[in-house]
Specification:
single chain, about 160 residues, alpha+beta, Aminopeptidase, seven-stranded mixed beta sheet, about 25% strand, globular
Length: about 160
């Protein structure tokens, strides 16, 4: 079942993010990796900034989460993670499809350029990489991230974005 996460899920969302993000260790630039990958204060900041988390629940527990955030004229999909032990079971795809059904706006997704598995996942679901120049413009307009993260990230967009 896919459901909206509540305040009661905060610790579980935090746990899922930091468990799943271990896949980035040794892959993303070393100066971008830290432990925990997302501290509780950062997660709280993301929620306070309007990221609404949704979770895939099975057997009474959350197995994956994904955030959705409306910013200006687009919707951002943020912080998509599935517990390491539960990967490759379609959980991410179900979350993505559910969130995609919630918006009529163009959707943008940012991820690490070195996370080729994440890029392939989004491409498999119909998203396409934007050009490097467009990526820099979009990250500056819709995200609040450090310059170094902009340098080492990519942006994928849905067909609504490309038709704009």
């Amino acid at each position: 079942m896919i459901r909206r996460c509540t305040e009661d899920d905060f610790e579980t969302v935090y746990s899922i993010i930091n468990d799943a993000a271990t896949a980035y260790k040794g892959v993303i630039p070393a100066d971008r990796w830290h432990e925990p990958y997302m501290p509780k204060e950062e997660l709280r900041h993301e929620i306070d900034a309007g990221v609404l988390f949704w979770g895939y629940e099975e057997g009474g527990g959350l197995l994956g989460i994904m955030g959705i955030q409306d910013v200006q004229d687009v919707t951002l999909f943020r912080h998509a993670y599935v517990r390491t032990a539960m990967r490759n079971r379609g959980i991410g795809g179900r979350l993505l499809a559910s969130l995609y059904d919630q918006t009529k706006r163009p959707v943008l997704i940012g991820t690490w350029a070195a996370a080729d598995w994440a890029i392939r996942f989004y491409e498999k679901h119909g998203f396409r990489l934007v050009t490097a120049d467009e990526k820099n413009r979009l990250l500056g307009k819709y995200w609040y991230i450090p310059e170094r993260q902009t340098e080492t990230s990519v942006v994928l967009a849905d067909k609504k974005w490309f038709k704009k």
